[in-house]
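User: Okay, second chain of the day. Same drill as before: sequence in, structure tokens out.
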Amino acid sequence: MALADKLANATPSATGSPCSLGVILGKLDDEDRAALLKALGTPEQRGLPAPVIYAALVADEHTLSLQQINRHRSGQCRCSK
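Assistant: Same drill. Structure tokens below.
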């Protein structure tokens, strides 16, 4: 079987649990969740830089990595599978 066939037939593993940023979003109250979602931005509206978001979340005693913010933003985390 060629590599292309293997990749075409591959299915992503789903853990059923959100990424660390998804967990944080689930714990926040409505006001803070809306503020974080706005800071993350959308494809149409640019958000805040990831280091700024990271610093705010760490200052609020949340545990995650800077890379996790970027992965969540780009749809490459468990939340989007």
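Residues 17-80 form one domain.

User: Thanks, on to the next one.
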